[in-house]
Design brief:
six-stranded antiparallel sheet, Immunoglobulin-like, 16 helices, alpha/beta, eight-stranded parallel barrel, about 25% helix, binds calcium ion
Length: about 650
């Protein structure tokens, strides 16, 4: 019979440990190891010279201290040593595992590493300031996978440096080009985004770090060691220090370019269940269980973690604090945040505030299955007011723009639906309690402030926008679909809230699916809607797309610049929206005015297949930006203006 815990509250009361010294602490010449393992009868520390293989130096017996914490001290610093714990339970069963508090590790995350972090800082590390972001609405977030950015030869990293491609070093390669267009770091700078959101860079399980180019690929939502870096993105996964140095360099390069770094963190489940280091160390404690001790599967990945258990809550706190202080990252995106309890997330927010209130925090307000915890205590989107300072992905504007993600043919505002105007209007108001929309689509009013709405229409999940348009707007010309794409970009970037774009969305990224030879291509299998382990052929950025679709890129760039140019696109409170945002009544399209005592913008989103003549507000205007040109047209206009089919336009009062 399984021996699982029935009274977590009692266990937490008697054993939860509040010290900040779990894992390895080096103080002067002393190295201390501490592990929380209250059920163990004996714990040993094993020291090795390598991250794998038969190279043990010694095994030391650890001693049990208060609250089930085992420790041992060495009278020297032991930097460079790899280590594991051997845990012995009453059953006399012995299990060897990596430390859940390991902050560095060897190849494939099997052993921890005692690393001298300060010695791995890049030049000038202490003097590079964290980019400032006064309010989350000032951010423009760009979601990127490290490997996708530079693994294709078209990224322009020369053949002589081929081993940089697909790695931390390749991500921030400078001066690289594909034909005439910029790639990698220069591309990020040119686009004008403020933050990159890196898909998981913490150690994950399914890529063999010995041979990362063997054709395998993964997004990284298969977490193994939550405080360690993934080895396949480093130039040498054998030496645990290398990935640390190279990732710090990536952060330094981005910070120097004024770009913040947001980490995608996957605390909601462990890739292994019984074989995870958590379960090996404290069986049945870190996961949520069902009535008879089975693992609950709220993540859809085999289990879910229990953030409400004090030692997992503390683990999340300690991990975030570590990433922020050691690597100076600027924010966190929580995968399946609906699985984390509200109290924990608010505590994390408070803790980040103590370090820097500008650190961004947002996540997915849903789960991947049925959690074993009360729905009113979890960070579901519908509980948004209970965690008002943590952002949520806005699936309402997403589906309003292009149609539902689960039916490829389903359409939204840009691809011809007549039923999405209210969703778009709500999106323009960041889904806050905007007074003058009350009574229309009230169920879409959930954000506490604009900062809580992360607006997007494309992310790593589901089809790319361009692929979705290819199927759902099949009866339109390619030229019309390009217009739809630009209109979608305008809605995401000019709405109140926080705009979020996927790498390559700005030049019509596509994810062609790899099919077994001979399989007939249909609408349903031509594109990959879940490319988590698809090969580079599907996932990598082909930079020739940027050159080919430069007109689209230039519109995205101009939209971002326009957003940054005026606070009217970045209002901070629902009250400001009430005062400065006014929809005009133009029947079947969407038009609105943003104005204060100094500026007035008039924005038109025309999703119709025919042109329209629209009344400008009172006064003289000029065309600040439109689907047709990224540059302003300095010709005075007033009264009625023509808006071409499927397009957007922004007029500014002179
Ligand atoms: Ca790994």
């Amino acid at each position: 019979m399984k021996k699982y815990i029935t009274d977590y509250a009692k266990l937490d009361r008697e054993f939860a440990y509040y010290g900040d010294d779990l894992g390895v602490t080096v103080a002067g010449e002393i190295t201390r190891f501490k592990v929380w393992a209250p059920f163990c009868s004996c714990v040993y520390l094993n020291l090795y010279t390598g991250g794998e293989g038969d190279n043990k130096i010694q095994t030391l017996v650890m001693s049990r201290g208060e609250r089930g914490v085992w420790s041992v001290e060495l009278m020297h610093h032991c930097y460079g040593a790899y280590y594991t714990y051997t845990l012995e339970f009453e059953s006399s069963k012995r299990i060897e595992t990596i430390d859940i508090y390991a902050k560095a590790c060897g190849i494939n995350g099997e052993r921890g590493l005692v690393a001298d972090f300060a010695s791995l800082d890049p030049e000038g590390w202490e003097d590079i300031p964290r980019p400032r972001c006064e309010n989350p609405v000032d951010a423009v977030i760009y979601e990127c996978h490290v490997r996708d950015m530079s693994v294709d030869a078209s990224c322009g990293i020369p053949e002589s440096e081929w081993n940089k491609r697909g790695t931390f070093a390749g991500f921030t390669a400078e001066g690289t080009r594909c034909g005439k267009v910029t790639t990698c770091l220069d591309h990020l700078k040119e686009l004008g985004i403020t933050h990159v959101q890196l898909m998981p860079v913490a150690d994950y399980a399914t890529i063999n770090e010995k041979d990362p180019f063997s054709g395998k690929y993964n997004w990284g939502y298969d977490p193994k060691n939550y405080m360690c870096l993934e080895g396949s993105y480093s130039s040498d996964a054998e030496e645990g220090e290398v990935r640390i140095r190279e990732f710090k360099q990536l952060v330094a390069d981005l910070h120097r370019a004024g770009i913040g770094v947001i980490l995608d963190v996957v605390f909601n489940h462990t890739y292994f269940t019984e074989l995870s280091a958590f379960h090996k160390t404290v069986p049945y404690y870190y996961h949520r269980l069902r009535g008879h001790g089975e693992f609950s599967n709220g993540s859809g990945c085999g289990n879910e973690t229990a953030s409400e258990h004090l030692m997992f809550r503390k683990y999340m706190l300690d991990a975030l604090r570590f990433w922020v202080t050691e690597y100076k990252v600027d924010g966190f995106r929580f995968d399946l945040m609906g699985l984390h309890d509200i109290d924990t997330m608010n505590m994390l927010r408070d803790e980040m505030d103590k370090i820097d209130p500008q650190i961004l925090m947002y996540g997915e307000g849903w789960t991947g299955g049925e959690p074993a915890y009360a729905a009113d205590k979890l960070c579901y989107k519908w509980n948004s007011y209970s965690f008002g300072r943590i952002g949520l992905f806005n699936d309402n504007i997403r589906d309003g723009i292009k149609g539902g993600t689960f039916d490829l043919r389903n359409t939204g505002f840009v691809n011809g639906s007549d039923h999405a105007r209210n969703a778009i209007k709500r999106g323009i108001t960041a889904n806050t309690r905007y007074k003058r929309l009350q009574g229309t689509a009230d169920d879409l009013c959930w954000a506490f402030t604009p900062a809580q709405a992360i607006n997007y229409c494309e992310a790593h999940d589901n089809n790319t926008l361009w692929d979705k348009l290819a199927i759902s707007a099949k009866n339109y010309s390619e030229e019309e679909r390009r217009r739809m794409d630009k209109l979608a970009a305008a809605i995401v970037i000019l709405s109140q809230g926080v705009p979020f774009i996927q790498l390559g969305q700005d030049f019509l990224r596509s994810k062609p699916k790899v099919l077994p030879e001979g399989t007939p291509r249909t609408d349903n299998n031509i594109f990959d809607e879940n490319s988590y382990n698809a090969p580079d052929f599907t996932n990598s950025i082909k930079w020739g797309d940027k050159e080919r679709n430069l007109d689209v890129f230039l519109i995205y760039r101009a939209l971002i610049a326009l957003r940054k140019s005026s606070g009217l696109f970045r209002m901070r409170t629902p009250e400001e929206l009430d005062a400065h945002l006014h929809f005009h009544d133009n029947n079947d399209i969407v038009t609105f005015e943003l104005s204060d005592s100094e500026e007035c913008f008039f924005v038109i989103f025309n999703n119709r297949r025919d042109e329209r003549w629209i009344d400008l507000p009172y006064g003289n205007f000029y065309l600040r930006l439109s689907e047709e040109t990224p540059r302003p047209v300095y010709r005075t206009v007033s009264g009625k203006v023509r808006i071409p089919p499927i397009s957007f336009a922004v007029y500014k009062r002179l």
